[in-house]
Each structure stands twice: as structure tokens, then as C-alpha cells.
Amino acid sequence: MQFSNTKEDGLETIIVDWLVKHNGYEQGTNADYNKEYAIDETRLFRFLADTQPDEMEKLAVFKSEQKKRTFLNRLQGELAKRGIIDVLRNGIKVYPADLIMFYLTPNENNDTAKALYAKNIFSVTRQLRYSIDAGKLALDLCIFINGLPVITFELKNQLTKQNVENAVQQYKDDRSPKEQIFSFKRCMVHFAVDDDRVKFCTKLAAQDSWFLPFDKGYNDGAGNPPNPNGLKTDYLWKEILTKDKLTRIIESYAQVVTEVDEETKKKTVKQIFPRYHQLDVVEKLIADVETNGVGNRYLIQHSAGSGKSNSIAWLAYRLMELEKDAHPIFNSILVVTDRRILDKQIRDNIKQFAQVGNVVAWAEHSSDLRKAITDGKRIIITTIEKFPYVVPDIGAEHKDNKFAILIDEAHSGQSGRNSAQMNLALSGLASDNDMDNEDKINAMMEGRKLLKNASYFAFTATPKNKTLETFGKKLTDEQGNPIYNEDGTQKASAFHVYTMKQAIQEGFILDVLKNYTPIDSFYKLKKIIEDDPQFDKKKAQKKLRAFVESDSYTIDKKAAMMVEHFHEQVIAKGKIGGQARAMVVTSSIPRCIEYFYAINKHLAERHSPYKAIVAFSGDHKYNGQEPPLTSAIMNGFADSKIPKEFKKDPYRFLVVADMFQTGFDEPLLHTMYVDKQLYDIQAVQTLSRLNRCHPKKHDTCVLDFANKPEIIQESFSRYYRTTILSGETDPNKLYDLISVMEKHQVYSPDDIENEVNLYLNGAQRDKLDYILDVCTNIYKTLEIEDQIEFKSSAKAFCRTYGFLGAILPYGNPEWEKLSIFLNLLIPKLPSPQDDDLSQGILETIDLASYRNEARETMSIQLDDADSEIAPVPASKSGHIVSPEMDLLSIIVSEFNDMFGNIDWKEPDNARRQILEIPAMVSKDEKYRNAMRNSDEQSAKLESERALQQVIFSIMADNMEIFKQYQDNPSFKKWLSDLVFNLTYNKEGNTYEAPTTGKVTSYQNIDTPTLMVAEPKTEYKTEK
User: Fold this and answer.
1) Which range of residues forms the domain containing residue 823?
2) Tens digit of pLDDT for each residue in 305-356?
3) How far apart are CA 425 and CA 531, in angstroms?
4) Does residue 805 sit in the same domain as residue 930?
5) pLDDT at 128
6) 594 in a structural domain
7) How far is CA 971 from the centre of its chain?
8) Cis peptide before 228, with omega less than 30 degrees from 0?
9) Among 646, 111, 595, which Cα is nearest to 341's?
10) Which of 313, 505, 809, 938 could form a disulfide with 349 if both were Cys (CB 3.0 to 4.6 A apart)?
11) Whole-angstrom distance between the N-terminal and C-terminal Cα of the chain?
């Protein structure tokens, strides 16, 4: 009886058999292998003799052993110096011969090239004995192309209780980089493989070897999906190692790149191999373009840390190569980015990947784009802001060209007028001087639309609803039929997704929410006037909060907390090998400057060797100072040098106001102190500055002074997995907005027609104002509520039409004219001046006391499900919120109740008993009956009755809780709401108190938040 071979060599057999029987490989032997030169000598010379007999005759290698060694020594030197990738692509010169070492993918109509390509010899050798000194050492598998080793494998089988990590360790322990075959650049990649996972490494360096996942991903996370047709990892040999795919990797993806430090001129050489999702997205995009041609839109949702710069570079290069009937499919590939930091990075990547010289251009000035297209530059890199200035320079001669437009960070790189100008320019309509006004309106409508002569490839980690609707793929069922909502709209998602979840699980980025500490600020204000005037309560509360948080005393205390935490929890614990940096995120330039001075003061007071850098745009008169301060003046060096200087000591803090919160890639950044309200994309992008990996970086840390954990959780959950657009924006909402505006009679149809005609005919600036001024005067006569309604509707119309104009199949000339008119009118409309009934409150109060309290550090868990976001709301208009007036004394009292908190004398005892109270209340029989048989309001009354009894029953054990319950209305309400939220259920079941961990916060929650907590640190200062 013969059983299945479940040993390691069973997996080896499966791979080799498939490569030989299905992929056309030959199987080599150890007898073919030359250990000294690390080549399959038999196949190397067979290939050269078969394809280039005349060149080999010149070298006489088959006639003289000395000539043969001379040739092999030359080959050895070229491989060591240039690497296997370059040798395969470009061959070698050995006087007097010029040898091709590998025939690349042939053009579709070149029969000679096809015949030569077919002569490439792909082979696989198992149990390769590679070492001269240790003859018994054997490599599981090695793939050769024309006798040159390109890929090595170590295999493990989980059924023998070993896995891919054991294979990785075997490379680190037993595969010395001093051996020829394992030396840097000698092979293209090294794979560790089991039946479940795949990892790869491009540079073996013993224990410092860095292996990365090469998995498909499963359930939007790491790993591979179950495979009904075989092993989970068989895509490696069935898809990746086919002759055609492996050839494309060699000629278009794998690369040795050299990075030069601009200051030290030190060179770093890296060998790059694509990760699975990078290879997958580019190959799928290319296949779709080949099938469906030019004119389609693609959204790629790839997480931070996904290597978007390389993906964009590879895609640009592959699109440049695409041909149909021996002609390029695209005349030009435009790479559009709004991130200045990435401009050079993408440029350098594409230049190094592109094998044909002089094909990449950088459109920095207004005339560069036209010149680049005219000069035949195939790949042109620019920023979206430059397109309005290049419109006159492009001309109609390019309207028949085909463009591929690659947009980095699509949510900001393709919006509004700039994208319309870009489309108009590339369509060739921008410079036609023979058009009348009707033609111009039609041309402008066409300019808004995504071009029919262009394909769009939009990359983002955080797709907004506009981005999904503009570039997303409509969802279909398994048979390809559209899936419609009840309102007849379709959902949409990205063409290709590499999620934040997968990037974290695969170790490409760190989980920045794993060590998140909310910092509660507690403060009391005092009234400093005898009178008790009335103010608008809501506006007053906002002003009071802003006053306290921006007070120099408050900032000084928070800065002290940051400095202490950084030294005690970051530096003292040796984070990132003692190289950790911190960022302080502030809400305004004045607060940023205040923090900079406060942090440097506290660093100096504790004789710290470290200093802070400040970063903000423009200049600011700090305390009326002349000349105004800039971050360059304060730092003593240009803003452009901040990223470089931040890597050096003594700089460890980077204090920012709206700078370096996006696109800043610094692996040494470990800790972030947040004193700015963040939400949605801004929250994700800001905190994600911490997620970049470093060999010595194992965690990150966030101390948040301004945001609630549930808001951060909601923001990140939206982009943790696939983001889906729940429907489509209804264009009829534009009619609703027009109706709202027309009822106020600020403008007439004639006003629109006359103003637009003046604008289109190039009237002088002073000719445009008369009609706009008349309309503005009418607007000023409206009631405040009507001004708000008109102006907000006008802005909503321009914003929504600017978006919908790109994707609607039919244009509307009246909408286009109204958009032109409103865009001219809106800047002239003064903001509605509603009476500020909170004016002057800051002069009536002062700060009495202030303290910070760090809650227990928590790990914020994200929703493990695809998230849906709603389409663009088109009909939203503003309105006045009626003021709620109250006495100053009451406003201050309520403010102190809200933010003052309770300074417990025995906090542990109070916390323990509060933890037990809900379970005690839930056992009350009347309350349980009310839950089962009464409405929610009646149950709430019974809950409060039962709570009062419990409070009286614990009075002997904790008089503090009893006193707060009796004397403090805000505490009583908080505890009452807490107990009811935790215990109420319609079945009347009892609530069980948590037995492990601590309840870290009960504020604003519907269910108990339970986690094991670190010891709490309290920072308290009385003023």
C-alpha cells in the first residue's frame, strides 16, 4: 500500500514536476553544476553555442581550457559587479565577442525574435550541492536561466511540523553570503516556501537577512486563501514561475537601484523584487488595457507602506511598453502627484526602471509639458497645480494623442478646476481661437469630463466618496451583472485593493493604534467680574475650551508632560535602538510656536541633550514681533532641510502645524503627541506618519490630548479594509440647489448670460464687476438666514457640479454657465454676520486650576469588515442655529462640571466600586421586570430608583461616591446614564461585572470598554 508523501521532498517533487511538465523547464543535476563559478555549465554553454555560434567561435572556449577559464572569470566579474538582472538584460562583452545572455520578450510581429526567445533554457535543479568547502550542504531548489542561477528555494512542509519561518531561519543560519550563489546580486531573489506561506529576500546577510511576505492575502489580511485545486502556495510555481511571467519580472520589475545621500554622497545599493500585490496590480491593469483599450478609469486602494512609488514606476514603464499593431498604445504617460517629497522619488524610480534612455521628463514650468510631448518624452512627471499654466502651451496638435494619467493620492490630486484644465489641455480644445461662446461652453463642459483619449490610474490609501465615484469600479455579481440599490444606483469599489489590515499583518507597516493613550484635560475657570451677564452658551463653551487649551500656562504643562514621557518611556526604554523621534501635532501656528518654545525650555531645564525643530508655512507675528517669525528663522536652517536635520542629533522633537502630516516618510518617528482635533482621512494620514518600519522599531506610541478614541477608531475603520461607495450622487440635487438660490432673486438669467459672455470674450477685469456688484448689493439686503442659505447653496452647487461634470454622460450648458457665474460672484459675497452673543466672555473669566490625566494605554481595535461611505451630499445648505442664552455664572459652572472632573481621595476604591455598581443594579427584580414588560423610559426610571438604593447600601464603604451622587448633579447623571447603558436589555438579564482588567473609561459608551491596562500616570498642577 502506497501512502501520500507528506515529507519535505514531497513538496519538492510537486514543484519540480509542475515546472518540467507544464512550464517547459528542464531538470538539471549536480553533475551539470560548476561550484567554483556557481553556474549550470552544461546549459550555459549549450545555450551560447546554439544561439551565438559565431561569437563563441571567436572566444575559442570549446578548444582551450585556458580560454574557457578566461571567459568564466570575465562572466564571474560581471555578475559580481553588475548583478544577474543586468547581465540577463544587457549581456556581457568578452573581447572580442558581444554575448546575449537572455532573449527578452519578443514583439508580436517579430518571428526571428520569437524563435530566439524560444531557445532560452529554463531549468530547475533539486538538492543542489553548491558549496566547495562543505560538500554535503544542499539547497532544496534552484532555478537557472541559460545556466545562470536566478532564484533559490528553501522548502518546508507543515505536515512535518516545520513552516516558512523555519525556512527563513535556515537561510539565516546555514546559507552563507560568502558562498558564490548567495552573494549579493548573484541571484535575483531567494524564496522561503511552505504549503501555506511564501516569503522572499533579495539580499542574504546571515541574521540580518530581511524576508518579506509574498502572499496573495486572505480575507483582506495576510496569508493565502484555501485552494480547491492544490496547495495554497502553488500560485508561485503555476503563475509566477512561468517562462513568460518570470521573463517580464526580469525585464520590467526586478532592479538594482543606487541611492545617494545628497549630503554625505554615500551610496546605498538595493536589489528590488516586486511584492505580490505590486506585481498583481500592474499585471491586471496591463491586461485590462490590452483587452479594453484606452479611455477607462481605475482606482487602486493601496495602504500606506504598500510601496506605491514603485508600483507607479512599474506601471508607467509597462504602459510605455504597450503596443498594438507595432504602435504604442499610449503616446505619453503623465504621472501627477501633489506630494513634493514624492516628485523626486517617483522620478528617480522611473528613471532607474526604464531601460531605454532619455524617455523621462519632469514638467516643472509652464512650457515643460508641451516641450516634453513634442520631444517625444514617453513618461512625464508633474504636479496638478501646474496644469492651469500649461493650457496655452499644449495646443490642438495633441488632441489625437493617447494619454495614460497616473494620479498619486487621487483624493487630492484630481479635483476641481485643476483637473478640468488638465483634461481641457490634453483634449486639444484649449487653444482653438475660432470658437464662438457656445463652442467655448461646450468645450469647457468637455474639459470637465474625463478624457476619452486617456486612461486614468488613481492611487490612494484613503479613497473619498468623490474618488470612488469618479474612478471606482461598479460592483457586479459573480455573473458580471450590475448590482443596483433600491434607488437605482450602483455601489462602487476599487479595481485593486491592498488593505491597511494586510499591510499591518504582513509587517510592512506598524499598527499605530496599538499603544494609544488618551489624555484627559481637567480645568476649572473662575468668574473675575461682579456682574453676571448672559452669553450664547454653545459658542461660549467653544471659546472657553479654546481659551484654556491655547493658554500659555496650559501649553507649558502639556509640553512638560511630553518631555517627561519622551525621556522616561521612549528614550529610557531604548526605542528604535535609542534613535526614536517624536512629532507634536498642533492645531495652529501660534500654538505650534508656543509649543516649540515650551518644549525646548523643558528640555533645557532637565539638561537634556535634545532639541526641537518647528515646522509651519508662511510667517507669523508672534506676540507682535517684528520681523514676523518663520520656521526657517526659528530653526536656523531652511524648511527643505528639516527631514534631513530631523534624522540627526540633537533633534528629537518635530513640532508641526499642518506640515509633515502627509507624505512624510521617517522610520525613526516613534511617538506622536496630538493636540489637534482629527477626523476621517486627516486622522488616518496624520497618525500614519508613525507606521513606517525600521529593523529596530517594534512599536509606536500616541498620546492624544484632543480626540476621543471612538472618533479615531471610526476614522481608521473606514480604511482598514476595502472601502465601498454605497451609491451614486443624484444630479437632480443640483436643481434643488438652483431653486433655493433663485427664490432669493440675487441674480437673473440675463445677469448670468451677460456676465458669462463678457468672461468668455476676454473682457478686461474692470468690465466684469458691474453685474457682480449689483448682485452683491441685492445679497446684502437679505436677512442673515437668507444670506447663509444663498451663499452655502451657491458653494454647494459649484462644488458638486465641479465633481459631477467629470462623470455625467451628458453635459448641461446652463449648469456650466451658472458655475462660471457663481465662481465669479461668490468671492464678492461677504460672509453673513450673525451677531456673536458670546462676544466678550473671555474678558470675564480666568483659569483657576488645570491638570492632565493619562488614561490607561489601550489598543484600539478596528472593525474587521468592509466599510461603506455615502455618496457626495449635494443639497446641503447652511442655516442659523438659534442661540441659547444663559448667565455667565451658570456657563462657568457647567463648564467646570464638564471638564473639572472629580479629584478622588481614594481613586482605586472609587473605581472598584463604580465597576461593581451596574451588576448590583441589574439584579433588582423590579428593574428586571420593567425591562421585560415596560417601555425604555419606564425601565430608565426603575434603573434610577435601583441605583439610588445601591448608592445608599454602599455608603458605609465609600462615602466619597455617596457624597458625589448627592451633591454633584453631573456625576449623578453620568453614573445614571452609565448604569442604564450597561444594564438595559429587554430580556431582563442580569449584567455581570468584569472579572479581568479595568474599565478605563465610561464616558460616552453604550457597552463596557474592557481591557487589561497599564498603571495610570497622573499629571496634576494647580495654578
Assistant:
1) 732-828
2) 788 888 998 999 999 989 888 889 998 898 887 655 445 556 666 666 555 5
3) 65
4) no
5) 96
6) yes
7) 41
8) no
9) 646
10) 313
11) 87
Residues contacting residue 259 through CB under 8 Å, at least 6 positions apart = 267, 268, 269, 270
Nearest-10 Cα torsion for 1012, 1014, 1019, 1020: 50
Does residue 599 sit in the same domain as residue 685? yes
The domain tally of the chain equals 5
Q: Are 276 and 215 in contact (CB under 8 A)?
A: yes
Burial of 946 (0-12, 13-18, 19+ CB in 10 A): buried
Q: What is the predicted pLDDT for the residue at 690?
A: 95
DSSP letter assigned to residue 706: S
**Same domain, yes or no: 670 and 814:** no
Largest separation between any pair of C-alpha atoms in the chain: 111
Mean pLDDT, residues 600-615: 96
Residue 421: CB atoms within 10 Å: 21
Asked if residue 888 lies in contact with residue 532, where contact means CB atoms within 8 angstroms, the answer is: yes
Q: In degrees, to the nearest 5, what angle opens at C-alpha 115 toward C-alphas 114 and 116? A: 90
The Cα 58–Cα 93 span in angstroms is: 12
Q: The C-alpha cell of 276 is what?
A: 505580490
Is residue 396 within 8 Å of residue 352, measured between CB atoms?
no
Q: Half-sphere exposure (CA, 13 Å, Cβ side) for 946?
A: 26
For 479-546, the DSSP string reads TS-B-B-TTS-B-EE-SEEE-HHHHHHTTSB--TTTTEEEEEEEEEEEE-SS---EEEHHHHHHHHHH
Give the side-chain half-sphere CA count within 13 A for 142: 26
Task: State the amino acid at position 355 in one-letter form.
Answer: Q
Same domain for 319 and 441, yes or no, is yes
Bridge partners of residue 456, in order along the sequence: 297, 405
Handedness of CA 168, 172, 178, 184 (dihedral sign): positive
The pLDDT, as a whole number, for residue 955 is 75
Residues 545-569: what's their mean pLDDT? Answer: 87
pLDDT tens digits along 220-251: 999 999 999 999 999 999 999 999 999 999 99
Q: What is the pLDDT of residue 907?
A: 64
Residue 165's closest CA among 190, 189, 198, 137?
A: 198
Which grid coordinates belong to 94? 568578452
Strand (E) positions, 646-695? 651-656, 669-675
Sequence-distant (≥ 6) Cβ neighbours of residue 350 within 8 angstroms: 312, 313, 316, 317, 335, 360, 379, 381
Alpha helix stretches (DSSP H) within 958-1002: 959-967, 969-983
Residue (of 182, 196, 284) closest to 236 by Cα position: 196
Q: Is the peptide bond before 832 cis (omega within 30 degrees of 0)?
A: no
